[in-house]
Amino acid sequence: METQASSAVHSADQSVKIEEITKYHEAKERSQTTAQDDYKDKVSISAKARELNQHSEINEVVERV
Question: Which residues of the chain have pLDDT under 70?
Answer without folding.
Answer: 1-2, 65
